[in-house]
Every structure is written in C-alpha cells, then in structure tokens.
Amino acid sequence: MMRKTIEQIANIIKIENNFESFKDYLIQGVAIDSRKATNGQLFVPFKGENTDGHQYIRQAINQGAAAALWQKDRPNPPEDLPVLVVEDTLKALQQLAKAYREELDVKVIGITGSNGKTTTKDMTASLLSRKFKVQKTEGNFNNHIGLPLTILSLKEDTEAAVIEMGMSSKGEIDLLTKIASPDVAIITNIGEAHLQDLGSREAIAEAKLEIINGLAADGTLIYHGDEPLLKEALKETELKTETFGLEAENDMYPLSVQTLQDGSRFKVNKAPDMEFFLPIIGRHNVLNAMAAMLAAHKMGLTFEEIKIGLTSVELTKMRMEMKDGMKGTKIINDAYNASPTSMKAAIELAEKMPGFKRKILVLGDMLELGLDEELFHYQVGQTVEGEAIDYLFTLGRLGQFIAAGAKNSLGEDRIFAFSDKHELIEKLKSIVASGDLIVVKASRGVRLEEVVEALECN
C-alpha cells in the first residue's frame, strides 16, 4: 500500500492549509469509511446525497487514522486535527493513485467490457499467480472511487495487478485507464448494458475503447474479435492487438468445447494438442478464459502453466455459482447482474447442461436498457427452446415480456410470471423435484439471490 509522509503527499496534491506541524506523519494506505480508518491511514471524506463524510473525520482519527483530507468548500475545518485542505477530495484521491501507480514496478492488466469483466479478472489473476505475485480488484471496486483505492492498496512488491474498469457513461473509462496505465488492456465484449445512458451499442463500443487512452506505449489490446463494432473501430489501428472469439480468423479460437456439470473442457488453436479444463460452466466463460489466456501468454506464461492455472480459478460470488438445492436439485446462481447478452448465455447454458431430468429458468428484470427495454426482454424470451427447458419463471414488470416472448416455444402452462418474489418462491418450491436444474439470473437490483437462498439446502 502507499506509504508516504504528509510532506511527500504535498508534492503530489495541492494542500491549501498549513501542515507544517504534522508534515512528518507517515500515511499507510487510504480509507473512505471512517469505521475502517485505522493503522495510520489517510481518511478521504466525500459528501454524498444522504451524509457528509467530513463529519466523521474526528472519529476516523480517534480510531487510528493518521490524517484526513478536507474539501475546501466545506466550512470550518477542525484546527486541532491533522487535516489537509484540498480543492476536491475525489480528485486528490485520484491524483494520489496515479502518482503511486507510476512509482510501482508492476504490470497492470486492465479489463473492461459489457459482460464478463469480473469473471475475466478472476481468471486472469488465477493464471498470473502461477508466476507472479498478483493483486486484483476486490468486489465491485471498479469505478472512479474504487479503482484509485485498488491502486493505492497495491503492495510495493506486487508484480502484476489485474484491474477491473466499470462505467455507466462516456468518459469514465478514459479517467480510469489514465490512472491505471495498463500494460495489457482487455475488452471482453460489447453488449447492451448502459443503453439507457449511452443510447446505442456504437456509443458503448466507443466508451469501452477509451481503455486504450491510458495504454502503455508498448502495450497490447486484447479484444473480442467476433464483435463487428470493435473490428471496424480497430481495423487501421497501430496498436499491438490480439483477438479471441469463436471465429477462426481470431488469434485464439476454440477447436472444441464440451459443457460438463462441473465446468468446461476445450481446446484452442494456439495449443491444439492440449485439452484445458475450466471449473466454470458455460461456453461464454470459455470466451472469457481465452481473453485471460492471451493476457497470461503475453506476460510470459507457457500454455502448460496456463492449463494448471485454469483448474484453480474461483469466481466472485453469484457468477455461475453451482449450489445444492432442496429435494436433490442443483441451482446455478448467476444473479449478480444481467443484460440481454448474458441472459441469453445463461439460457443456452441451461439448455446444453447434461445429466438433469428437468431444467427450470428463473429470470428477472434486466435494468438500464433504455427505450427498447421491453423489446429486449421479449427477444430474450424468444430464445428459450421448449424442447430443452421445462419451466420458465419470471419476476418483475419487464420479466413479463420474457414470459410473453417464450409462449410460442413453451406454451402458457409451463410459464409462471410473478410480480411478488415470495409468491414465486412458494410456487417454485411446489414444483421442483430431485434431478432438476434451476438457473437464476437477473439484474443486481432485483436481488434474485433471495430465491437461491430460499431453495438452498439448509
């Protein structure tokens, strides 16, 4: 983590008050939650909609924080505490992170995309840990606050940092990539998430491509080569690029993919005689794995090391998480988030999973899809194959359009649309039986993991 004196920090950010009396205080790391600000950290307060972090500065310092920032437009900074008055606390945090990243001898792999960012991050970190000391973005610390905190938490001897970059609007990835300065950048795909804010897939592609703005001069961009928007935008680029995808024109593509109950077996063109096992289900996760494999190979790993690394991948919770359910059922909890692209991938996974007597989909609203949200939900429903899926449960106003889209394939007697989560759970409990597979997916705001919790073995 960052270790600097107040005086050294003053050489990075502009401090507008007299700090002479505490200039030699040693800062060890950064915190934005006053309840967790301890052990000599710098407490960085923000003014939110409901609370102002400045009012907790005294608490943070009493708990062990060495000092705190204070935003200039907030009145009455305490004169008896080691506070550093700055123009903007958020910008100061970002400046500190950028400066610290420039000091470190670390290779940064930056990852963005509409779907699969966190999964690809977890895979890449697992592979690189075969050879390097690795740190990665934890939880959802992938935005304009979380990414600087991730950078500032890097240990001085970290050799590779796998950094996730999220966004909701244009310009955000540009900011993040210029802080992280990645040596390798990955764009997993271009989907429909953030259509509400950006308006079109073309605009989403432009926003994701901002990741190259901070790419090191000799860096490499790895991207989904089956995506026409990316291919078109990069057709005349002078950047070093590598592509992955299903099509044979990519630098890496699968020769075969076998879906199993406990993961996927696959072969790729770059190591045709080697079979890889990924303990994560879904063909779309093989695509994520190929992105991670290209990054790891770029960092010097052999395909034998990559093969070993893939077997130990562990994903962040609620992403294709297989659980034991009541009455001898199996549940795939993919309830962390959803878009039309990832929802269709989950449906395809359910349809192709071997060894189950019946297959049940539990799908909820996909949020932030803009004006065409009802159409997107209806089209997702249309992809459900009646011969492969036995029942469809939907939750929410938009979920009803998934149900409507599936009627031609499933018929009304195998579809149950709910607006109440408790009612859905009770009906689902009455139907499930031993040998069933239940796939649960929706946007984060729907909290569909509560369905999983209700069905899990106690």
Q: Indicate the low-confidence ranges by residue numbers.
A: none
What CATH architecture of the largest domain would you give?
Answer: 3-Layer(aba) Sandwich
Total beta-strand segments: 21
- Tally of individual domains: 3
Q: Tell me the name of the CATH class of the largest domain.
A: Alpha Beta
Instruction: Count up the helices.
Output: 16
Amino- and carboxy-terminal Cα gap: 40 Å
**Computed CA radius of gyration, to the nearest angstrom:** 24 Å
Query: What's the overall geometry?
Result: globular
Sketch the major β-sheet: 6 strands, parallel
State the share of residues found in helices, binned by percent. Answer: 25-40%
**Which band does the percent of strand residues land in?**
15-25%
Mean pLDDT across every amino acid position: 94
Task: Provide the CATH superfamily of the largest domain.
Answer: Mur-like, catalytic domain
Structural class: alpha/beta
Spatial sequence of strands, sheet with the most strands: 8-9-7-10-11-12
Here the CATH topology of the largest domain equals: UDP-N-acetylmuramoyl-L-alanine:D-glutamate ligase
In short:
By secondary structure, the chain is an alpha/beta fold. The chain contains 16 helices and 21 strands. α4 packs across α10, α13 runs parallel beside α14 and α15 runs parallel beside α16.
Could you explain how this protein is built, in words?
- Helices cover 33% and strands 21% of the residues.
- It has 458 residues and is α/β, with parallel strands linked by helices.
- It has three domains: 3-88, Udp-n-acetylmuramoylalanyl-d-glutamate--2,6- Diaminopimelate Ligase, Chain: A, domain 1 (3-Layer(aba) Sandwich), CATH 3.40.1390; 104-311, UDP-N-acetylmuramoyl-L-alanine:D-glutamate ligase (3-Layer(aba) Sandwich); 321-455, Alpha-Beta Complex (Protein-Tyrosine Phosphatase, Chain A).
- A hairpin with a 7-residue loop joins strand 14 (263-268) and strand 15.
- Helix 3 (89-103) packs parallel to helix 5 (146-152), helix 4 (117-128) crosses helix 10 and helix 13 (373-382) packs parallel to helix 14 (399-410).
